Amino acid sequence: MLPLQAHCHRGLDTPYATAGRQGQTCTALSPAIDLYRAMDLTFQLPQAEATLVQVSGAGAARQA
Hints:
The protein has one domain (about 1-64). By secondary structure, it is mainly α. The chain is globular, with a radius of gyration of 12 Å. The protein contains 4 helices and no strands.
């Protein structure tokens, strides 16, 4: 069930990002990344990390 839980957290990033809620997007992605790391899911982990970096950079750019 942990992979499903990780995928659900990962899936929340899309509606939050679409709504412009970068803080909530990061909050949703962090547990997904932790779970992917703990389960050594090497395919999903880089994708989630890349999304987190992209969202974090977009949030920093908006604040400047």
